[in-house]
Amino acid sequence: MNCQQFQEILPYIIESGGNDEEEDHLQTCPACAELVQDLKYIATQAKLLLPMHDPSPRVWTGIEESLYRQGLIQEGRTSLMGQITIFPTQSKSWTPMGWLLAAAALTVFSVLLVNYRPQLPPAQTSAQNSIAPPAAQETADQQLIAEVSQRTPAVRRAYEDSLREVNAYIADAEQAVASNPQDAGAREYLLDAYQQKEMLYEMATVQTLP
Amino acid sequence: MKNLALTAGLTMVGILGAAAPLALATDTRSESRLDIAPGGTVNLVNNAGVVNVHAGAGRQVILISVTRSPKIEVDQSTTPDRQRVKINTHVLSEQLPTDDEARVDYDVTVPVGVAVTITTATAPITVDGLRGDVVLASETGQIVVRNISKAHVHIRGVAAPITLSGIANGHVEITSSGGAVELRNVAGPLVSVGTTSGNIVYQGDCSGGGTYTLATHSGAIDVTLPETASVDLSARSISGFVENDFPLQQKTHTSFVPKPGSSFAGTSLSGSSSVELQSFSGRIRVKKQ
Predict the structure, then answer these.
(1) Spatial CB neighbours of A56, under 8 Å, sequence gap ≥ 6
(2) Which residues contact A191 (CB under 8 A, 6 or more apart)?
(3) Which of B86, B171, B241, B272 is disulfide-compatible with B209, CB 3.0–4.6 A?
């Protein structure tokens, strides 16, 4: 069993304790062991949140969409709801606590995977180096770099630097909006950040030498 | 003897061959006059070199261009209604010009009231004394705009430093990614500057009862105001810090809760102009002139 296989059934392992094969992997893989430890800690803390209710289907849809966006699951695979219901013996034992833990585990798992940097020093305070742009955005950025690749090195470097900085701006602004949705100032930053990026794309596609 | 003559001949051919590109690389200056209707627009596209634009008398656009290679052509045309003069810099040869060969220097004189739209890659742009709208874009070339009144000034830059001075009653909108923006004595109903990492400097009185917005992600904002400035000012940084040495009366109602070191808001005199300073992670400093 490898890490990917292990992490795909992580909610089940947290809930049930896992079988021998999963236990063996846990003994030999410090990364997965650390992940499980973190999730168990969250599970312990989550007990303090009682009373609880089953999460609505929207929660699962949101998690699923988030995982699709981050490229952690692919089109055509069984939905998260589907994955859970294929374990009929487990489905009956899904208590509200189980639902919450699974939701928490999946959310934390996706966040940890996205931000997992085993070779890097502790996370930076700025989003500039710690948050990668989504795959689609990254592809578009690469197209932009390709667009300006024939221009002078200074111009090319200017675009590369600007793209990196504006992506950090977007990430910071998104974070600010997420942490305080009522903050009109944070929303203004986000709008401004996207306008900056739009400007870069427009500039890159202008033909200065027809 | 025959060999000597042959050697001498080949040497001459070699010298001439080496000199030919140098001769071709000499500057070629041309001047033309193009009719334009009142309120018309001059549209100029250049890659490298220099673009200088200034106001002049008369009803014609006077275009002086200096090219450095026959691989480059300056193409100029006027629409039948004379509403638009188009000046484009073309590569003629299939062989790409070198950076130096691609340079074209422009000096453009435009009648009062004519608008200009200029796009460059690395060429610096200087616009002085116009009375029409100005739309400028440059990737890395410095942009300088001076002495303009009652006009829209829209500027975009990637890493281009941008300097504006002596703009009266203007409608100014600047978007710059990494280039620093400096505004001296710039006033009008709308002054809006947005950068990603470029620093922003404003020195002036923010007069005209206008709306002034200076925003950046990681750049610093420095604002210097005279004591006579009548402003309703707010400054806010999410993860940076703010400093204020300008005397302001604290406001009782603000759109955010002022937090020492991160934000402040206040008015000076009647607070006729609205001034908003926003830097996500950069420093904001407001001081008295």
Answers:
(1) none
(2) none
(3) B272
Asked if B61 contacts B130 with a C-beta cutoff of 8 angstroms, the reply is no
Closest CA to A208 of B90, B85, B47, B75: B47
State how many domains chain A has. 2
Give the closest-approach CA distance of B14 to chain A in angstroms. 32
The answer to the question of residue A126 being in a domain is no
The minimal CB distance from B137 to the residues A195, A206, A209 is found for A206
How confident is residue A59, by pLDDT bands cut at 50, 70 and 90? low
Segment A72-89 shows an average pLDDT of 42
Over 60: is that where the pLDDT of A97 sits? no
- Radius of gyration, alpha carbons of chain A: 21
pLDDT digits (tens, 9 = 90+) for A132-152: 566 777 777 887 888 888 778
Are A105 and A139 within one domain?
Answer: no
Whether B99 and A186 lie within 8 Å, measured CB to CB: no
CA A143 centroid distance within chain: 23
ipTM above 0.95, yes or no: no
Measured in angstroms, the CA of A59 and the nearest CA of chain B are apart by 30
Tokens of A204: 């890159």
C-alpha span between B20 and B23 (Å, rounded) = 5
Chain A contacts to B (CB-CB under 8 A): 125-126, 151-152, 154-155, 158-159, 161-162, 165-166, 168-169, 172-173, 176, 183-186, 188-189, 192-193, 195-196, 199-200, 202-203, 206-210
Task: Identify the H or E element spanning A109.
Answer: helix A96-115
Phi, psi for residue B5 in degrees, rounded to 5: -65, -40
> Could you say which DSSP state residue B204 is in?
S
**A188 occurs within a structural domain:** yes
Q: Are B184 and B200 in contact (CB under 8 A)?
A: no
Q: CA A166 to CA A194: how far, in whole Å? A: 8
Residues A75 and A28 in one domain: yes
The residue assigned the tokens 């795909």 is A8
Q: Are residues A93 and A151 in the same domain?
A: no
Q: Average of pLDDT values for B109-127?
A: 94
Burial of B274 (0-12, 13-18, 19+ CB in 10 A): middle
